[in-house]
Amino acid sequence: MTIAVIVYPGTNCEHDIVHALDLAGADSELVWHRDTDLAGADGIVLPGGFAHGDYLRTGAIARFSPIMEAIAQLAHEGVPTIGVCNGFQILCEAGLLPGAFVANRGLKFICAPTHVRVESIDSVLTRGAYIGQVLRLPLNSYEGNYVADDINKIESEGDVTLRYCNAGGSIDVSANPNGSTNSIAAVASTSRNVVGIMPHPERACEEILGSSDGMVLLEGFIASTEMPLS
Amino acid sequence: MTTPRVPDHIRLGMTDDEYQIIVEILGREPLDAELAMYSVMWSEHCSYKSSRTHLARFTSDQPWVVVGPGENAGVVDLGDGWLAALRIESHNHPTYVEPYQGAATGVGGILRDIFTMGARPVALWDPLRFGPLDEPHNRYLFEGAVSGIAGYGNAVGVPTLGGEVEFADRFSKNPLVNVMALGILKREQLVLSAASGEGNLAILLGNATGRDGIGGASILASASFEEGDEEKRPSVQVGDPFEEKKLIEACLELYDRGLVVAIQDLGAAGISCATSEIAGNGGMGMEVDLDKVHLREGDMTPGEILMSESQERMLAVVTPENEADVLAVARKWEIDASTIGVITRGPDLVVYSKGELVCEVPAASLADDAPRYDRPSQRPGYLDEAWAEEPQIPIGLDAGDVLRTLLDDPAIGDRSWIFRQYDHMLFLNTVIAPGHDGSLLRIKGTKKGVAVSTDGDSLRIYLDPRRGSARIVFESALNVAVTGAAPYALVDNLNFGNPEVPGVMWQFIESVEGLAWACEELDVPVVGGNVSFYNQTDGVDIYPSPVVGMLGFCDPMPEHPPRLDRAREDMTVWLVGEDARHDFAASAYDRIINNNLGGRPVDVDGGEARRVIAAAVMLAYETPLLHDISIGGLAVALAEISIISGVGMTIEGVSGRELFDETPLRFIAVTHADRLDTDEPHRRIGTIGGNTLDFGEAGVLSVAEATDIWRNALSGRMAGRSTESTQRSPDA
How far apart are CA B476 and CA A115, in angstroms? Predict the structure, then answer.
């Protein structure tokens, strides 16, 4: 079982994801964006960073990288695929997830711990968590403010996977760090095997780093690569 | 009307005497491009001509020093084959001209110094000095610089773990932006910048060469500012963190595969500096063909190509057999590369353009033959007057009221407005994050940890350059010690005014003496540094501002290093160190409450420094919370503990005056136990609990109000809110 970690020029969280997956007992392999073959990958991670410098618009150039066709094909076949931060932005630009990102409310980059509440466990990322569970995960983005034209459809179909909340789990404006619509922090595809998450689960993989709450998500993802969601 | 023609060398910032030295070296008049190269390489910024004599005072002969000053970065041994590379630089003048790009390219430059050594850069720190934030233009400069650091550092993928900040009037027209970087590498990855092997090739990697930044080192960094200097803006380079990120990965792959003989980054003076240094360092020569350089603009003159300071470029020396592989690695990482030269037996650097000889000079002469000046120095007259202005501190002060004012100072209040903009978590090494005394990183796969603290104290140093400078060394040592790391190596950035002013030169010499002495007392090698002179605008010199970056090292790292958020009900509060010695010169109390800057800082004993720092390191392994006492004294340190831990405390037997005393080499310990296991002088001063900072007869302040003031001090000012009254934030 191998997880493909996609590396675009400008990606910078690839080694961190590999480290966290390794702690969770999964093998992973870095795949360069110019490759076109993902044969044998049981799961795909698009890590955080600044793919192609985030020039033009985050993810806008990455969606044309040669590897994208293979990612889309496997995603459509049901292979568990997650995008973290910049990876989430790329999945949106590539049309594999709904919505898009704009600059944070306040127009400043935010690197800070944040709390999220699990809204749905029907996804390859949250299957190991429970509804209402509060996780402490670091945020690290300038364009983390989620927007979508079809927000009502996303909400009504239960695609929202995580929302920003305060430490006690309640959701209000003061607990929304970046102005994200409906405090959305993670969204799943209708098929549930593609998930984008704005905070970084891999940055919360060991207590010495301040939190190990991200492991429940990464372990759920790894389990999904072995056994599909029912 | 005719105006007398200014000779080229004067226009380029050289003196007649310096021109004569060039004529003697070459045995003829220099060609245009040669003169341009000497002018930049012999500028103050590149040649250290006014400081070299004095920098010899620093020592770095400890056995754990692998590479001392002179290379791109200092390197020390962390055991088991692990090395750390560290370096500090300034980007002061570019930041005043264009704050975002000035600060951003400072980050880019220091990173290249680190990965030039073969190390992956793992962290950055940014000490900042700006004018008071009540001035809108200072807010513009400060906001721009922080954005530039964040914009470049985040995108290039190197975490920024903090820094420190001072606001004072003399930085309004001459802000200081220093940047320190740390790299970690295995011994076999170490690469040096000395070319060898006649016939080896010089390959230029990275960005295309353009007209940006021409003369940056000589025009911006080596002269004072005057009105109308906006026209110097074209001398500021523009950074591209994406290009740098690709360059880092490409270079690290080249090292991994053993494809380079030597490598040198292109910084000040661009190709002329890199080619002459890499050849000169190896005792070799080089023949360069400028027609091979990949250019951004086609019609550049040879002088422009040689002097361009376009960012994100490296020069690698490789064997002819490896040329194809090196070019293939460059292609893979999508960076440009061109073979521009060949190593010769030397000693000359020979440069051709369009088949014509444009330069033929001894390679080493550019770097080594620069004049050295022992400039006149004189104790400045302001000192006697300032020393006479003794701080007046009332015995019966109200500690609550004073704290309200001090916590509202933007250099004392919460600085998360700055570091929230920096990615400070990438690489999963950050154990102690910004907002503490020192930052602590783990080295994955080992039990080792490295800590860093950057420190400066320009106003205290203004009052006594020698004592003040020694104190920042001890301060930074204590800051790393409270994380559990022992001081291990130091880099310094010496920011001073115009060295042609004897009073400034005196400050510089005294400061170097203080730094060197303190480092010797702690047995800490000075493995690198940077000198930034000519920080003078409209005839006003900045406060003397040496800034140190201390590297601490621990093996094993404490399992639970002390943190400021670990105070809990019923814990005991201890004060460790000698009794306060009435040290109020340049204290927060005297500056902010009295609006005075006077008196003389107390002297510090080297033996005491060693003992206190060793005690802190030892206690860090078994104590939940340690906190250094510095700006604002004991009161501010205690308030920070209460604010960050979210719990009050009752303090007994400390007078109001003693609460704000800034006597150095003291720290706070907070423990579960009713005893503190240390041989250093210590006394129990209170208990954690309640929701007020209760100083007994000296005064009281609620933790909620302290928190509110502290959180708004910097962020409120940057939001442009009135600084007259502190406003409440909605979630406080």
Answer: 34
CB-CB neighbors (< 8 A) of A16 in chain B: 426-428
pLDDT of res. B59:
95
Please tell me the distance from the alpha carbon of residue A16 to that of residue B124, in angstroms, as a whole number.
18
Whether pLDDT at B586 is above 60? yes
* Disruptive mutation site among A110, A208, A211, A212 for chain B (greatest number of B CBs within 10 Å): A208
Residue B78 has φ and ψ, to the nearest 5°, of -105, 10
Q: Is the pLDDT of residue B231 over 70?
A: no
Q: What is the mean pLDDT of residues B47-72?
A: 94
**B572-576/B625-628 β-pairing:** unpaired
Q: What is the DSSP string of chain A?
A: -EEEEEE-TTB--HHHHHHHHHHTT-EEEEEETT----TT-SEEEE--B-GGGG-SSTTTTGGGSTTHHHHHHHHHHT--EEEETHHHHHHHHTTSSS-EEEPPTTSS-EEEEEEEEE----STTTTTS-TT-EEEEEEEESS-EEE-TTHHHHHHTT-EEEEEE-TTS---GGG-SS--GGGEEEEE-TTSSEEEESS-GGGGSBGGGTB-TTHHHHHHHHHHHHS---
For residues A138 and A112, is the Cβ–Cβ distance under 8 A?
A: yes
Q: Could you give the number of structural domains in chain A?
A: 1
ipTM for the predicted complex = 0.96
Domain with A96, as residue range(s), is: 2-226
* Confidence tier at B225 by pLDDT (50, 70, 90): low
Q: Which stretches of chain A sit within 8 Å of chain B by CB?
A: 9-10, 12-13, 15-16, 19-20, 32, 49-50, 52-55, 108-112, 138, 140, 142, 174, 200, 202-203, 205-206, 208-210
Compute the Cα dihedral for B165, B169, B172, B173 and give only its sign: negative
Q: Quote the pLDDT of residue B563.
A: 97
Write out the two tokens for B505.
Answer: 């030169």
A202: exposed, middle or buried (C-beta count within 10 Å: 0-12, 13-18, 19+)? Answer: buried
Q: What CATH number is attached to the domain comprising A81?
A: 3.40.50.880
**What's at B459, amino acid-wise?**
L
**Looking at residue B590, what is its pLDDT?**
97
pTM (2 decimals)?
0.94
Q: Work out the percent of chain B whose per-residue pLDDT is above 70.
A: 95
pLDDT of residue B728: 35
Q: Which of A13, A52, A208 sits opposite B442 (nearest CB)?
A: A208
Task: Name the strand (E) or helix (H) holding B453.
Answer: strand B449-455
Contact (CB<8Å) B242/A110: no
Concerning whether A19 is annotated as a catalytic residue, the answer is: no
Contacts of B416 in chain A (CB under 8 A): 112
Q: Give the mutation candidate from A11, A12, A54, A207 for the B interface (greatest B CB count, under 10 A).
A: A12
Q: With an 8 Å Cβ cutoff, are A109 and B157 in contact?
A: no
Residue B135 has pLDDT above 50, yes or no: yes
